[in-house]
Design a protein that fits this description.
Radius of gyration: 21 Å
Structural class: alpha/beta
Distance between the termini: 56 Å
Strand order of the largest sheet: 4-3-5-6-7
Helix content: 40-55%
Order of helices and strands: HHHEEEHEHEHEHE
Number of helices: 7
Number of strands: 7
Bound molecules: zinc ion
Largest sheet: 5 strands, mixed
Length: 205
């Protein structure tokens, strides 16, 4: 493959870009050649931005959303209702719910769902820290907003059992206008916003 390009450095750069999701070697070469045409300073700024993001972006110590500071802007916003916690799988889901502009509470990012097939158990997720938040008090409602998949359901039920002792905390689930198997982040804003407003009490079976 290396003989395909006149430069080994170029080949290496193409290899790096091809590691990105959805980027094949053809696209990678196009991007690399584009960078090669830019001023050196501009390319350095590009690489520095990526490196800084990777090194400096943190996880919010409260909700585990990404943040530049110890506590994310949502958790530190006094206008947000801290008594309502929306439980989501990942940071894209936080963005999806935020885009609906229908939700004034705070979040808890699990970092995935329970999936024995993929070797993901409850201990791999931020479930204990969710229970801790509830235990600390001041929480009136926990909204489950996970995907309507078998793994999502398993996780919902696990959280339901974990939070069962806290009887004064309402546990609700977003309305399933979302068809089974749909990932939360792919749902359109109107549907997602409506499903949060029309949430129903979660009944464990
Ligand atoms: Zn936060």
């Amino acid at each position: 493959m290396i003989e395909q390009y006149p430069s080994e450095l170029l080949e290496k750069a193409v290899q790096e870009f091809s590691k990105l999701p959805g980027v094949g070697r053809k696209t990678a070469l196009r991007l690399v050649l584009h960078l090669l045409r830019q001023e050196t300073d501009e390319v350095l700024q590009f690489t520095e931005t990526i490196a800084r993001m990777r090194q400096e972006v943190k996880r919010c110590s409260v909700c585990h959303n990404i943040s530049d500071s110890e506590i994310c802007p949502i958790c530190s916003d006094p206008r947000r209702d801290e008594s309502i916690i929306c439980v989501v799988e990942n940071i894209q889901d936080v963005m999806a719910v935020e885009n609906t502009q229908q939700y004034q509470g705070v979040y808890h990012v699990l970092g995935g769902v329970i999936s024995p097939m993929d070797g993901v158990g409850p201990a791999d997720l931020e479930i204990d820290s969710l229970v801790e938040r509830v235990k600390e008090g001041g929480v009136k409602e926990v909204i489950l907003a996970l995907s309507s998949t078998m793994e999502g359901d398993t996780t919902n039920f696990y959280i339901f059992r974990k939070l069962a002792p806290y009887t004064d905390v309402k546990l609700s689930i977003i309305a399933r206008g979302i068809s089974v198997g749909d990932e939360l982040e792919y749902t359109d804003e109107v549907t997602l916003g409506r499903s949060i407003l029309n949430r129903t009490p979660f009944e464990g079976h």
